[in-house]
């Protein structure tokens, strides 16, 4: 009987533990797509999905901590518990079993207890086919179809290893632990596979492992695929989309006993390897399976019996094995291609592919380093004249000397560094720093330079040793009941510009001292980068992405979040989640000051050598910081780096029109000018700039709050200062990538581009060297027609003349649309074809027409801005966006376009006026 039924609540708050894992991430996205608020709790910061769903809130933490469990469960209606220490046979083997049992049982007891306390309505547990007795699965000569009740065949139960025993024990705990109104659901997964899961780290399941090896075989031309065991083991495999559908049906049912979620289609591992080879396009006639003995292989035969789940839920798999493998193969191939792009040279690429051609064992318990200290105590210790306490004191001194060797972690001499506390009254700032006498030796007895009076000394010391990886924070909080952020009993005197000269000079002194120290082997100097995010909307999904970015060990990163909406309801949540981290500084403007003012405040908070500006609604690539570090190492004299801001593929007429109109052209200029060492400018959605020079360059708040010209102005002034002192301009960094969503979720609105143009029109007056004269463009011609229409209307003109202005307006309007159609559909068709869009046919023609409207509206905004500023004499003047990088090409093309448009406008006007 089908027990499935509609969900009781339309908008339940769903928590997915392990929601950044394979099955969990798919389930989280499915519930989010259904309109439910979704929270993910995971020890991993991100899933394998590259396009992160910003609406899914992520809590990064360890579910073995009961306090963390209580915090994440607090508001949940439905909890799907998929978090586990698990993997394929490379992970679930005898050496790891005790560790896996301990971790997984602890996690489940914690999360289950938290759910009961929080009054959760539904609790789902991801069990495993490993609960079934191994005695039923010993023979590979025939398929073993396992029913749910087979767990209790041949008692007592003998699951597959401690992993299976923990799963079975947890099933029993859940069925007996649940109290009150919490409904429980249990599925036993049978070898779920698909894209966006582990595929190369030893935790992957066999389909991903074989697909990876088959792809490597194709790329290397060796046609050899490694198989653990003799290949006779038989399994069934269920595609991830089918598994997710089964979970959804289970949770919308009255079925509260364990059910199988798997496939009944059994196959040997050798045959699976052949299907994997077929999925990647490998020539099967040349395929050689290399069987490796001595590796974990699991039971001989197992597949799912779906009679019960089909009768109860009406569920069965829909996607065949070959189709599922083909889909998964494409994703793994894309991942391998990305890895190959990072390889430096053919040798590194060959080594990468060689490693991917083999599976590895995961050892969860690190290897032990066992050593002994031999401490001879001579007979003098027993002599009548000896002093036993003195002997013990010597031993204590020796023990202390062992502790002192921890300085080797940082690679610097003993005593170099700073240990600070955090003050609850002023989060994000290190306070009460502790330094060693070594510091006094380096600075001739001076704690801080003379420029400091009674403020800023604490962060100075912390930031100084941050550059050497030697700043630490004691894991406790203090509260300064007298000072802190409150008014002091004295006049606070800040040290002006201490993050420039004083900090740089102190850094040089430490470097000089280290160079003279014979115990120092070098290599501890860190690159320091601060990420500044001006934030109005305070969208936690995006902020979670930023604050989970990881840098390399040679780079120190801090995050500076400037909130420009003091009334945002999400500020409290942001602070609760991140304010305890000393690498996160959260500041709230008293009023809405605009993006430029917020970026300037971020610069004032920063003490790093470089700053990276990100918009608050971009999704950064996982390797963003690693790629930025590479760019800085390659071009250390640059004024900054222009990153790549991509947009999703355009799928609507409007989003396609945005690209055709050119308003997104400079967002990925780093790709278009990938080898350029002097990119004219970049958008502030993703741009890095040198900060450790006191150039006085800030974002000009005279530009509109919502943007328009301030990014160009900032880049040009920063570039001018750095180049005047022997440095370079802004360098293209095409691999420093973020993805920017379409504004307003792609909803149609032109006002943003109108506002941008009003602002960037001010560049004409500020940068005369980058300005050229031109004949009237569409907006200037439309302005002329409006003025002519008004003039003829208020004067005693014949009625035949009064319509000349409106007719000219119509002629200009139509001429611009026709000319843009000519450009996009014929003259520049090759250039237009590069736009990533799925729009075709009549919708493409509509996009061309709409792009003309967007362009004209933008040009109109620029004219309005000039008129509002009283810059009438700057009409017919154009700012050269490429700043000469392409020579006269851009201005000549713009002039040609305007000549053709005005000619077409005059011709159409002649027709309309009957001339």
UniProtKB/TrEMBL annotation:
Pfam families: Epimerase, Glycos_transf_2. GO terms for molecular function: transferase activity. The keyword Repeat does not apply. InterPro entries: Epimerase_deHydtase, Glyco_trans_2-like, Lipid_A_modif_metabolic_enz, NAD(P)-bd_dom_sf, Nucleotide-diphossugar_trans. It comes from the Eukaryota. Residues 14-262 form the NAD-dependent epimerase/dehydratase domain. Residues 531-694 form the Glycosyltransferase 2-like domain. The keyword Zinc does not apply. Keywords: Transferase. This is Glycosyltransferase family 2 protein. It comes from Phlebiopsis gigantea (strain 11061_1 CR5-6).
């Amino acid at each position: 009987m089908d027990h499935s039924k509609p969900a009781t609540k339309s908008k339940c708050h769903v928590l997915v533990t392990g929601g950044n894992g394979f099955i969990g991430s798919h389930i989280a996205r499915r519930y989010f797509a259904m309109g439910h608020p979704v929270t993910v709790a995971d020890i991993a910061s991100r899933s394998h999905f590259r396009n992160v769903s910003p609406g899914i809130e992520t809590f990064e933490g360890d579910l073995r901590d009961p306090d963390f469990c209580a915090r994440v469960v607090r508001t949940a209606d439905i909890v799907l518990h998929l978090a586990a220490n698990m993997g394929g046979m490379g992970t679930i083997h005898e050496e790891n079993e005790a560790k896996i049992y301990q971790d997984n049982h602890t996690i489940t007891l914690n999360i289950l207890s938290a759910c009961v306390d929080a009054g959760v309505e539904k609790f789902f547990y991801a069990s495993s086919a490993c609960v079934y007795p191994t005695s039923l699965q010993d023979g590979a000569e025939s398929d073993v179809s396992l029913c749910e009740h087979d767990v209790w065949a041949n008692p007592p139960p003998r699951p597959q290893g401690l992993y299976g025993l923990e799963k079975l024990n947890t099933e029993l705990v859940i069925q007996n632990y649940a109290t009150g109104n919490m409904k429980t659901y249990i599925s036993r997964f049978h070898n779920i596979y698909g894209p966006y899961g582990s595929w190369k780290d030893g935790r992957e399941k066999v389909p991903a492992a074989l697909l990876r090896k088959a792809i490597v075989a194709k790329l290397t031309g060796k046609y050899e695929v490694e198989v653990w065991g003799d290949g006779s083991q038989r399994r069934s495999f269920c595609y991830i989309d089918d598994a997710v559908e089964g979970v959804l049906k289970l949770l919308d049912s009255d079925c509260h006993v364990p059910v199988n979620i798997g496939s009944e289609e059994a196959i040997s591992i050798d045959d699976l390897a052949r299907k994997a080879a077929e999925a990647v396009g490998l020539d099967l006639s040349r395929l050689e399976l290399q069987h490796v003995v001595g590796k974990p292989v699991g039971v001989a035969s197992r597949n799912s019996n779906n009679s019960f789940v089909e009768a109860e839920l009406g569920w069965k798999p829909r996607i065949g094995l070959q189709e599922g493998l083909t889909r998964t193969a494409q994703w793994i191939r894309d991942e391998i291609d990305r890895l190959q792009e990072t390889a430096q040279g053919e040798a590194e690429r060959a080594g990468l592919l060689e490693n991917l051609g083999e599976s590895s064992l995961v050892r969860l318990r690190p290897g032990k380093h066992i050593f002994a200290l031999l401490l001879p105590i001579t007979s003098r210790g027993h002599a009548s004249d000896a002093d036993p306490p003195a002997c013990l004191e010597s031993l204590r001194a020796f023990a202390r000397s062992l502790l002192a060797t921890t300085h080797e972690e940082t690679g610097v001499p003993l005593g170099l560094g700073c240990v600070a506390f955090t003050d609850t009254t002023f989060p994000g700032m290190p306070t009460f720093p502790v330094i060693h006498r070594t510091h006094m030796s380096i600075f001739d007895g001076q704690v801080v330079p003379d420029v400091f009076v009674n403020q800023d000394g604490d962060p100075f010391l912390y930031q100084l040793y941050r550059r050497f990886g030697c700043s630490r924070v004691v894991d406790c909080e203090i509260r300064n009941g007298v000072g802190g952020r409150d008014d002091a009993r004295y006049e606070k005197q800040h040290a002006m510009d201490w993050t420039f000269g004083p900090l740089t000079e102190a850094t040089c002194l430490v470097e000089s001292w280290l160079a003279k120290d014979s115990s120092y082997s070098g290599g501890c100097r860190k690159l320091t980068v601060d990420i500044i995010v001006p934030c109005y909307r305070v969208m936690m999904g995006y902020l979670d992405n930023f604050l989970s970015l990881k840098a390399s060990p040679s780079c120190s990163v801090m995050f500076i979040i400037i909130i420009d909406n003091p009334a945002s309801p999400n500020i409290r949540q942001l602070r609760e989640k991140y304010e305890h981290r000393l690498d996160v500084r959260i500041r709230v403007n008293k009023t809405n000051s605009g993006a430029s003012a917020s970026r300037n405040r971020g610069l004032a908070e920063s003490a790093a050598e470089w700053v990276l500006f990100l918009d608050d609604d971009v999704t950064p690539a996982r390797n963003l910081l690693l790629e930025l570090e590479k760019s800085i190492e390659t071009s250390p004299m640059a004024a900054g780096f222009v990153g790549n801001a991509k947009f999703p593929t355009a799928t609507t007429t409007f989003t396609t029109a945005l690209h055709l109109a050119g308003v997104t052209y400079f967002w990925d200029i780093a790709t278009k000018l990938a080898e350029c060492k002097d990119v004219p400018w970049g958008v502030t959605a993703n741009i890095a700039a040198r900060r450790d020079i006191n150039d006085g360059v800030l974002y000009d708040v005279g530009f509109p709050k919502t943007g328009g010209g301030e990014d160009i102005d900032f880049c040009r002034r920063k570039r001018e200062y750095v180049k005047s002192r022997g440095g370079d301009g802004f360098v293209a960094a095409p691999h420093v990538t973020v993805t920017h969503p379409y504004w307003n979720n792609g909803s149609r609105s032109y006002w943003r581009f109108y506002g941008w143009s009003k602002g960037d029109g001010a560049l004409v007056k500020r940068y005369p060297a980058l300005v050229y004269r031109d004949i009237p463009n569409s907006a200037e011609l439309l302005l002329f027609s409006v003025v002519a229409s008004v003039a003829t209307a208020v004067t005693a003109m014949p009625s035949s003349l009064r319509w000349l202005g409106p007719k000219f307006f119509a002629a200009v309007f139509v001429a611009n649309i026709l000319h843009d159609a000519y450009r996009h559909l014929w003259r520049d068709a090759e250039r237009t074809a590069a736009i990533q869009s799925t729009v075709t046919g009549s919708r493409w023609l509509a996009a061309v027409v709409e792009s003309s409207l967007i362009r004209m509206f933008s040009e109109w905004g620029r004219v309005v801005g000039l008129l509002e500023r009283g810059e009438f004499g700057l009409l017919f003047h154009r700012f050269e966006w490429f700043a000469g990088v392409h020579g006269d090409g851009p201005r000549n093309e713009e002039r040609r376009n305007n000549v053709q448009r005005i000619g077409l406008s005059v011709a159409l006007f002649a027709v309309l006026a009957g001339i």
